[in-house]
Structures are given as structure tokens and as C-alpha cells.
Design brief:
Order of helices and strands: HHHHEEEEEEEEEEEEEEEEEEEEEEEEE
Number of helices: 4
Oligomer: single chain
Number of strands: 25
Strand order of the largest sheet: 3-2-5-6-7-8
Radius of gyration: 42 Å
Length: 323
């Protein structure tokens, strides 16, 4: 129905009588028509200013109101300026309200006061309010009637409105300017730890970028795969040295019992140590190839040495071996 304020119905018969009298005096049609309206005591309703007419106003002076169909026919062709046309369905409160062609205001849509939580099925309509709008299963954020593009900070979270898709809200893993980001199903940027497909990833708490290489998190060092960024576990050969990461991804330090052997990792930087090592007042020897601690008798650089069979400390002096 057309939108606007109410106007009074024009009494029919006084106008017709006044018009006939005016014409009898030879007045031209426009002047006669104006005189007839003046004598009838009503103002002329200019085309384009017709407003919403209520049942009570139509029934003024005891005259029964017209039916809804008749009022709709009378109002045909009148609609406020500035309204937009669109082939669409407006969804209000979860119910579809189809906008029909009434012969005048084709596809006329009222202005949405809030774009937030509104959906539009179809195309060609841009809400005048700010907020989220869903179109064909994709979400957009409108401001001033236009969809935004690029990063959006809203409600304490970052969103990515993909310019390549007209500002559609991104979800999942996205590469932006050479860096990888992850956005949840709700569009919010993921930060910190995230598990996916049995692997763990770490996204920078400040800018959300996926972490590669080594990183210290909460006081522990981790290694993240250079190609895919997932957290590494087990041995890793990095920049010419071996390191070991536990099942939880933390870098190991000091003496570690792994796979039935003792290994030694630098207490400061975590590098696996090999060769002779002075630890807590005793000498130990770790294989130069695989880093395992030697125990028992071992020939090193052409000389024989004896290491404790239990704790690996190097022995000195006379030793009773095998009885």
C-alpha cells in the first residue's frame, strides 16, 4: 500500500453539481473544475501526494468505507518519491512478504530500519540501514546502503569481506596479501591454537596470521611446518641441527629417555648434543651419528672407554668387567 499521511475523501456529488454550474457559465474546463472544488469546500488532491487512507477516514460523514480492493485500485499509480523498485522478497519476522505489481508501484519496497538479521531473496535491493544481510546463502555487511569490502572490525572480532566476491563474508582458510588466516563458520577471525584434521595450528593473537617455523608460546618453543604451518612433533632437522618435539609439540631440553635410549638436548636452545658432554660433574658420550648415549665399552677414535651400563657415566681406573 502507498506510504504517507491521511487525506480527506473528496465528496463526489457536490463537486459534480458545482462543475456543471461552472460549465454553464462558459468557464473553461480547468477553471470550472477549480471553481467546483472550491464550492464543494474541499481541496484538490495533487497526484503524487496520495497517502495511506485508513478505514475510519474513508467512512467519514457516515459514508461507508470502500473495500480494500477498491481502495487499492484508487491508490494505483501513487507512491512516494525516493522509493526503490526491486524484484525481490522481503523477509520480515521469518515470513515472506512478496512485493506484488499493483499496476503503479511495481515491486515497491519500504525502507528497512535495520539491515541486521534481515534476509533478501533475489537481487537488486540494497538496504539503507547498516548491518548484516544474507543473499543467496552469503552474508554481506552494509553501511550507508552499500556492501563493505576488506577487513571489518565489529563487536571485538575481525571479519574479512572478500572483495573478489563483492564483499561476501569469508569463512575457512583464506590467503590475504601472502599471509594465511582462518575464519570460523560465523566469520570471526581465529587466533591462537586451532585443531583441524588431527593437526594443530597457531594463529597470531594480534593479527591472526598463521605461524610458520619456530615460535615461543606460553614459555615453550614449538616448530611449525614450513609449507603447511601445522605443529610438528618428534625429531626435526632445522638449520643444521637436530631437535626433538614432544607429543604436545613442546621442544625438549636436557636429558630425555626416548625409544629405549638416552639423549641429551641443550638446556638453552634445545639442540641435540653429540660427542663427549660434561654433565653434573661427570663425562658422558653421545653417539655422533644418532645422539644416543653410549653405555658399556666403546671404541672412540681408536681408543677404548668404559661407560656405566646403567647411567652412562664414564669410568676411570680399574674396572671389573664381566667378572
Amino acid at each position: 500500500m502507498p506510504i504517507g499521511g491521511a487525506v480527506k475523501r473528496i465528496p463526489k456529488y457536490p463537486v459534480y453539481v458545482g462543475l456543471a454550474i461552472a460549465l454553464s457559465f462558459g468557464l473553461c474546463a480547468p477553471a470550472a473544475e477549480a471553481l467546483a472544488f472550491e464550492q464543494a469546500g474541499v481541496g484538490r488532491v495533487d497526484e503524487g501526494s496520495l497517502s495511506d487512507i485508513s478505514d475510519a477516514e474513508l467512512a467519514e460523514d457516515g459514508e461507508a468505507g470502500n473495500s480494500a480492493e477498491e481502495r487499492e485500485e484508487e491508490a494505483a499509480g501513487y507512491f512516494p518519491s525516493g522509493s526503490e523498485k526491486a524484484d525481490a522478497e522481503l523477509v520480515e519476522g521469518g515470513d515472506h512478504a512478496p512485493v506484488e505489481d499493483d499496476g503503479g508501484a511495481e515491486g515497491l519496497l519500504g525502507v528497512l530500519e535495520e539491515a541486521s538479521a534481515q534476509k533478501i531473496d533475489g537481487a537488486g535491493y540494497s538496504p539503507s540501514g547498516d548491518g548484516w544481510v544474507e543473499v543467496d546463502g552469503l552474508r554481506y555487511y552494509y553501511e550507508g546502503g552499500e556492501p563493505l569490502e576488506g577487513p571489518l572490525f565489529l563487536g571485538g572480532s575481525w571479519y574479512w569481506l572478500d572483495p573478489a566476491r563483492g564483499g561476501a563474508m569469508a569463512t575457512g582458510v583464506v590467503c590475504i596479501d601472502g599471509s594465511w588466516y582462518r575464519y570460523g563458520a560465523d566469520g570471526r577471525m581465529v587466533t591462537g591454537w586451532h585443531a583441524d584434521g588431527g593437526r594443530s595450528y597457531y594463529y597470531d593473537p594480534l593479527d591472526g596470521t598463521l605461524t610458520f617455523r619456530n615460535r615461543c608460546v606460553d614459555g615453550s618453543w614449538y616448530w611449525f611446518d614450513l609449507a603447511e604451518g601445522y605443529m610438528w612433533t618428534g625429531p626435526a632437522y632445522i638449520d643444521g641441527a637436530w631437535y626433538r618435539y614432544g607429543a604436545d609439540g613442546r621442544m625438549l631440553h636436557g636429558s630425555q629417555w626416548l625409544d629405549g635410549s638416552w639423549y641429551r638436548y641443550d638446556p638453552a636452545d634445545g639442540r641435540m648434543l653429540t660427542g663427549p658432554q660434561w654433565i653434573d660433574g661427570a663425562w658422558y658420550f653421545y653417539d655422533r651419528m644418532d645422539g644416543r648415549m653410549l653405555m658399556g665399552s666403546a671404541c672412540i677414535d681408536g681408543a677404548w672407554y668404559r661407560y656405566d651400563p646403567v647411567d652412562g657415566r664414564m669410568k676411570h681406573g680399574w674396572q671389573s668387567i664381566e667378572g
